Each structure stands twice: as C-alpha cells, then as structure tokens.
Amino acid sequence: MNPARPFAPACERNREPIFSCLQDWLRADARVLEIGSGTGQHAAWFCTRQSGWHWQCSDVADNLPGIRAWLEELPAGRCPPPQTLDVASGPWPAERYDAVFTANTLH
C-alpha cells in the first residue's frame, strides 16, 4: 500500500457487496457522480472492475489530494480527476449523470 494514500478499513469491508449491488443497478457504460468520495478507495476499486463506468469523484477540496493518490495508480482514462464539491454550497457539476452514489456521507 502506498503510504501517501489515505486508507479506510470500512471500504475494504464493504466494497465487494456494494459493487455487486451497483452491477445490478448500473449499465456497463453508466456515468456516476460520487458525492463524498473520501479516500478514493471505492472509486479506484470499482473502476478497476468495471472499465465502462465513467466514475466522477467529488469531495471537499481538502480530500482531493488523497483521492488523486488512489486514482493516479489506475490505467489512464479509468477515472477522471476528482472535482471539488461541497454539497452545502456548490457549485454542482453541470454534466449529466445516470446515477449519484454516496457511501459514507449520511452518518
């Protein structure tokens, strides 16, 4: 593991069941906006398993370096750079998405 990447043990525990559910709900070419990407672990793991998903990470600015650290190890084009998004103040992305995903922002 790269020591510069933040690590959340909960992601290791829940990524497979979440991915399984997402596969049931999302098309193979789905465009997904992830709100509160946190460490970036979910995005990195999902994007290595479903190369057709366009997975857009977003979070507050302080979390973006850690997310980038996870995404930079992916093959080129798997996940675009994370976007700054504070849901309380915006601005929200102007792009269209098929789904919005969040795993750890509501508790």
Structure explained in plain terms:
The protein is of the alpha/beta class and 107 residues long. Helices cover 32% and strands 15% of the residues. It has three helices and four strands; from the N terminus they run αβαβαββ. The protein has a four-stranded parallel β-sheet with strand order 3-2-1-4, with helices on one face. The N and C termini lie far apart (27 Å). The model has no long low-confidence stretch (mean pLDDT 93).
Ordered list of secondary-structure elements with their pairings:
Layout lengths: L8 H17 L5 E5 L5 H9 L4 E6 L4 H8 L11 E2 L14 E3 L6
Helix pairs in contact: 1-2
What are the key terms here?
alpha/beta, globular, 107 residues
What can be said about this structure in brief?
This protein has 107 residues and is an alpha/beta fold. The chain has helices spanning 9-25, 41-49, 64-71; strands at residues 31-35, 54-59, 83-84, 99-101.
